[in-house]
Amino acid sequence: MFRTGFPVLKPLSALEPSASSGIGKGTAVEFAGLGAHLALTGRNQENLQTTAKACVEAGTPQDKILLVTGDICDEEVRKNLVDQTVQKFGRIDVLLLEHAKSTHALGRAGKVAEVAKTIAFLASSDASFITGAQVPVDGGRHAMCPR
Length: 147
Fold this sequence. Notes:
5 helices; globular; single chain; Rossmann fold; 4 strands; alpha/beta
C-alpha cells in the first residue's frame, strides 16, 4: 500500500540503472512506496530479484516492474533497457543516476534513505517549480571542497 502524507509519483515511470544494491536499490524501493512504475537494471540477477520483491512489498504491483539484467556501461544493455521501458510503460519520466557515498563535512557517510528521499522529492509534483537545479546530497562536501 502507498504511504500517505508523502508526494505521490504515480503513475510516473522511473528507470533506475543500478537497482541491485545500495542507493539504487534504496531509491527503487522509495519510488515503489510512492506508487511509481519501475524499470530496474543491474548486473546481479539475484540481487535485482531481491530489489523487485522489496518494491512489490513497498507498493508497486509486480506487473509494473520491468527487470533487465546487464551492465549499464554496455551500449546494447542501455538501448535494450530504454526500448523495453518505453514498450512496457509508454514513456520514461525519471532517469535516476547516482554516485557512491563517502564521508564528508558532517563526519559520516550518507544514508541510502537520505539520498533516495531527496531523489523522490525532486521527481514528485511537490518539486514542480524546480528545474535545471543541482541539489547536492553530499553531507556538505560541496561547501568544504570547492572545485
